[in-house]
Amino acid sequence: PDGPETRENGAPPERMFNAPWPALAVAIIIVVSYAAQGLLPYNGLPFALYPVEIEAGRPLGLLTSLFLHGGWAHALMNAAFGLAFGTPVARLFGLRAAGVIAFFIFYLLCGVIAGLVFVGLHPGGMTPVLGASGAVSGLMGAAARLMDGQGRLGSPFSRSALSMAAAWIAVNLLIAVTGLTPGLEEGSVAWEAHLGGFAAGLLLAGPFARLLKR
């Protein structure tokens, strides 16, 4: 009989946890950066995203805000979603150097676009916005196009992509109406950025995949 380390067909057992390392790195970066956030002045709030600062030509907050969070629950939630939705995207892009670099550029670009969407909708805003939610939403948007195709990139208008988009819009409209921000202790995580990041990931997954010939 087969021992505990083999399956019936003699193939090696499936690993219980086999996420590609770039997706795991996103989750670790989110957790570690929040663990170090307390070392920053005013718990990192000077490095949050402020629309008024972006409009004044100081764009650094578009990037630095992605590494800040409003509490452990907020950071761990984004880390979990980043791992879950980053896994299929990292597999699509591949684990060669070009694919890994493209994965992290894609992640950051979705986050920046999400921030710009928020800035565009809140001109002159002075409320700090922080969190990786926009970037993680970009991974979610890209992953939505992979749900029908068995690892192949589907249309942004496929049933699964549109279903996930509708669900994400509904969740964020609920946040907009109720003001609910689970796990957030400082600053705000904007639902507008969530939707902007999702749309960016949904649309940019195709060009990135074509560039990588995936």
Features:
214 residues, mainly alpha, 8 helices
Structural category is: mainly alpha
Task: Using the CA coordinates, give the radius of gyration.
Answer: 18 Å
> How would you characterize the largest beta sheet?
none
What is the count of DSSP helices, taking H or I runs of 4+ residues? 8
Average pLDDT, to the nearest integer?
A: 88
Q: Poorly predicted ranges (pLDDT <50, ≥5 residues)?
A: 1-16
The dominant shape is globular
Report how far the terminal alpha carbons are from each other. 41 Å
Sheet-strand content, in percent, reads under 5%
One letter per element, helices H and strands E, the order comes to HHHHHHHH
Share in helix: 55-70%
Please identify the oligomeric state: single chain
What is the total tally of β strands?
A: 0
What's the structural blueprint in terms of helices and strands?
Elements: H1 21-37, H2 51-55, H3 61-64, H4 72-93, H5 97-121, H6 133-144, H7 159-178, H8 191-211
